[in-house]
């Protein structure tokens, strides 16, 4: 495991002027121009075989992909035999594969890497003098991060990295000497090693078979393609590994090598498109654009046709896609290369015309003039772009260090002075309704190396008094921009997100908000002016201390307001403890408890389970000597949950991650299960993205190996059996677009009334105001009013008998954070609705309240609905 660096915090980003150098391409590897032998000797006198000799084919050969195990063997061999390359396994992946990283530089730089890292971290430390910054920039070397196949089907980039590593390990030239002497390359061969094993191994195994060559399911255990949508929650192991690397080695630039669709530009590179948010330092963005223009210059000079720039990838609006690294001084350099057919086979246009735009412009200098595109070209373009980027950093290494690491940190520590509208601090007041949410928020900031402070005594700021124990996040610190990005209420820049007064509004590449407080259910308050308070640094974020009550004679009680109650219910069920949930409010232990309160008998098993959960979440546990006399529901012991997600469904993948985090007793529903759904499950969850087609047709067994038979279609018979599961006494919970599938399946009395005319209404990934009824089981523990995630989702008009748990207010604009217009059209419509269906139950959540695990404040709706459906009405006396 990587250790967190002990030196420094983080910083912001860079200003490098556009180069005016002549249009000269970076020289190709000598092997590519017929120079050099198949085997090259290193400084050690050992031999390193060329890729073609090691793998049996050249990288980029049509229809041939090197497997990741073999690539790791090759890189380890190079690391053993070359004094320019260090090969390290820095972590294990989600599926326990190696996560390798290569450090490539001159032998001297590799020997001095420890000092280089300390110098670069020192540059990113607040308060150093300009003269010291200049001295360190002259002495040190910038780290240039290169990463391939974060998205595992974008296979050409890792293949290209094989050639790139070999070149720097073996070639002696003016080009390689310049790069190796002036840069430390940090090469991550794959940002998702698990996916490389899945995708490439599948491609190779299916050769000569009737099966599809492209892996048909999620290529990460949980999140699939969404693994580059995890840069502020840090949920996945691979995310955390890369972030730790970035925090430790402080790359000034990160080249993230991606591929796009077959019809996209042959390669896209920065400058980036609008919109521009308040987050990333302008130096970093301009440096990324400058780097991109330098690379585009070399691509064009190398006669690489179909290069396009600008007018795409507006990723600097929020922290989701722009990435955490953009806030610590790393200029994000993205390349997107068009893909081939079935990963590695030639792609041809259907009409014989050249691929891509044929309009010559300032954004498309040299249109592509062929109707065919190959893996060999993908690898070639990838290498050219990488070599050009490395050269640009090497040629300007001192300015990159000075600007990206020193100046961005200096800017961040003066953020409220240089960026009008930035508050001095954000305060998280003590006494929040959900201590677990506060803990999870602070853990995010702790992992991001934010300086967190806590009040020793009450203080006044912004005209308001805050109690002792409140947390303070000051924006005058290296991560101040990131703090502001995650806690501000986003106001989309409609004026700057248009290229002319009458031009259409440019929407961001991803969502329009990532407000962490609203997503978790934590009240956060900006403080605009400086203030004084008695604060102490939080050295380690821990859950709120909980004192277990003395052994009560009546019951243990847990209030429902925290989404961490999901941990409570799952742990009690696993321990075999009977669980009752109150259906109304009641008074006990000197306080009033809301509907949905967890009531359990005071047994040893219950105490052990509750003590463990309380210690890990900070959720209080109460005790009463008299069992409450309150109506409610006894949960079914060992509630069995089935998840219908279908193949390659990312929302379903995120759901499995959430279920695993909370310990839910679940299984993914397979095609064979439809013969006896009631015998296997009490509740079935339909993930967002699950349609009738997912269930009825599914994956074609004739085109996919037997290991994917679980996702095959179950036909009309299976569709009918799912409906019978509910009407016969089962419980169905449907999320997002899965709610429309459930409505169709069960003929439920609701209509989706969300306007489809985007000129009239649009909410593309925003937080909208919503109201809840906490006395309704689906909304137990929810605040009466709190924003909900909405991304062009369903909002329902109820036309028959139903229980409504959440609606959209009818008092005007509903936007809380992000971008939306016409939200008045949702006023009075329902979001969460429950139904009795025969002997069973169904609950619909029209909006995707589980989106990427972000809106955790809404998680109680899912958990309540899962456990409530199979429960029995009664009183807690029967618990024993």
Briefly summarize what is shown.
The chain is of the alpha+beta class and 880 residues long.
Query: What coarse outline follows from CA principal-axis ratios?
Result: globular
The residue ranges in which pLDDT falls below 50 over 5 or more consecutive positions are 1-39
Q: What's the mean pLDDT score?
A: 94
Major pleated sheet: 8 strands, mixed
CATH architecture heading of the largest domain = 3-Layer(aba) Sandwich
**Which superfamily, in CATH terms, is the homologous superfamily of the largest domain?**
Zn peptidases
Strand order of the largest sheet: 3-4-6-5-7-10-8-9
Instruction: Output the structural class.
Output: alpha+beta
Quote the distance from N terminus to C terminus. Answer: 47 Å
* CATH secondary-structure class of the largest domain: Alpha Beta
Architecture overview:
- The protein has 880 residues and is α+β, with helices and mostly antiparallel strands.
- 30% of the residues lie in helices and 18% in strands.
- It contains 24 helices and 40 strands.
- Helix 5 packs antiparallel against helix 12, helix 10 crosses helix 11 (375-395) and helix 17 (565-574) packs antiparallel against helix 18.
